[in-house]
Amino acid sequence: QIQPVESGGGSVQAGGSLRLSCTAPGFASKNCDMAWYRQAVGKQREWVSRLFSFGDTTYADSVKGRFTISKDTAKDTVYLQMNNLKPQDTAVYSCVTMGRCAANWGQGTQVTVSS
C-alpha cells in the first residue's frame, strides 16, 4: 500500500508562493496518477490538480495559471508549486494516489494565506 506524506505547507501573505511536496514511495513504478485536493474550514473537499501517469496534467479553474503540478520519479515525489496565492487558497492540502492505484490519502498540510 502506498502511503503519501505531504510537506511544505505554511503561512504566507497574498501574492506569495509555496511549494508542496508529496512523497509516495512506489507511485511511479506502479504508474499511479497523483492528485491534490484541498479542504477549507467549513467547506467540502475540492479537487485542485491531477498528474496522470503518462504525464498530462489538469487543474481546477480556480488555480489554473497559478499552480503547477510536477513530479520527480527518482524521489517518488509529486510537487504542487503555488504562486500568486490568495486568501481563498487557505486550506488543508492533501495528495492521493489514483488511476491504476487504489486511493490512498496523505494526512494533509496546512496552507494559510493572509491578506
Strand and helix map with partners:
Blueprint: E1 5-7, E2 10-13, E3 18-23, E4 32-39, E5 46-51, E6 57-59, E7 67-72, E8 77-82, E9 91-99, E10 109-114
Parallel strand pairs: 2-10
Antiparallel strand pairs: 1-3, 3-8, 4-5, 4-9, 5-6, 7-8, 9-10
Structure report:
- The chain has 115 residues and is mainly β.
- The protein has strands at residues 5-7, 10-13, 18-23, 32-39, 46-51, 57-59, 67-72, 77-82, 91-99, 109-114.
- A six-stranded mixed β-sheet has the order 2-10-9-4-5-6, with no helix packed on it. It has a four-stranded antiparallel β-sheet with strand order 1-3-8-7, with no helix packed on it.
- It is globular, with a radius of gyration of 13 Å.
- The termini are far apart.
The biggest beta sheet reads: 6 strands, mixed
Helices, by number, come to 0
Rg over CA atoms: 13 Å
Shape, per Cα inertia axes:
globular
List low-pLDDT spans: none
Quaternary organisation of the protein chains: single chain
Report the mean per-residue pLDDT as an integer.
Answer: 97
Class per helix and strand makeup? mainly beta
Number of strands: 10
Strand content: over 45%
Order of helices and strands: EEEEEEEEEE
